[in-house]
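Case study B.
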Amino acid sequence: MPDIEMAPYVLAAYVLGWAVLVGYCVYLAAKMSKIGKEVDHLKELLKKE
Amino acid sequence: MKKGVVWVLGAISVVALAVSLYWIFVVLPIVSREQTGFSQKIFYFHMPAAIISFVAFMVTFIASILFLAKKDFKYDILAYSSAEIGLVFGVVLMIFGITWDKLAWGVWWTWDPRLVTYLILLFLFGAYFFLRSMVSERMKQARFAAVFGIIAALDVPVSFFSTRLIKNVLHPVIFSREGFGLDMNMTIALLLAFAGMTALYVLMLMLKLKVEHMMEDVHVLKDMIESRRD
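Model:
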C-alpha cells in the first residue's frame, strides 16, 4: 500500500486512540464533580439532621 | 490528592505527548517500504500503550496479593482502579495494533501468538469486572476479584515473552539481546510518548482512586444520616 493511502488509517488510529484516552479522563472528571456535589449535599443534610 | 501534583502530571503528559506527535509527524522522515513505510508511525504510541497496560495489570497483580495478605480494602481499590486503566490503555493498544496489522500485513486481525495472548488478557480483565459485579458482599467480592486478578495477570509475562520465545512470529521484536532497532530521532519520539503516557497513567490512577474514596465518603455519610433518622 502506498504511503499516501496509509495516511488516513494512521491518522484515524491516532484520533481514535486519543479519543479513548481523553474520553476516559473526561469521564473521571465528570464523575468526580458529580460525587463531589453529592458529598456536599449529604454533609449539608447531616448538619440539618 | 494534591492539586499541584495533578496539574504537574497533566502538564507533563500534555507537553510530552504533544511534542512526541510533532516529532513523529514532522521531524521523523517516513521510513522505507521495507520497514512498513508511513504505517511505522503507529509504533511510537502503540508500544508505550502496550507497556503501560502491562504495568497497570501488574499493579493489579501486586495489589491483589497485598489485599489477600493484609485484608485491607485500599489494596482492592488500587487493584480494580489499575485494572480499569489497564483496559483503557489496552483498547488504545488494540486500535493502533489492528490498524498496523491492516497496513503491514493486509488484514485487520491475524492469529499471531502476541495478538492472541493479549486479546485473552483483555478478555480476562473484562471477566474480572464481570465477576466483581456478580458478588455483592464486599469482602467476598474483593477476595474473589483478588484471586481472579492474580490469575489473569499471569498472562502478562506470557504475552510479553510470546514474541521472544516462539519462533517465526509476525509481531516484530524491537528490544532484544541483539540490539535496539531504533536511531536517535526514533528513540526521542518513543521516549517522549512513553513519558507522556506514564504521566497520564499515574494521573488517571490518582483521579480514579480519588473518585473511589469519594464514593466511600458517600456511603459513610448515607449510613450516618440513616442511623440518625433511626
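Chain B has one domain: 3-28+48-224. The remaining cases will be described in the next quarterly update.
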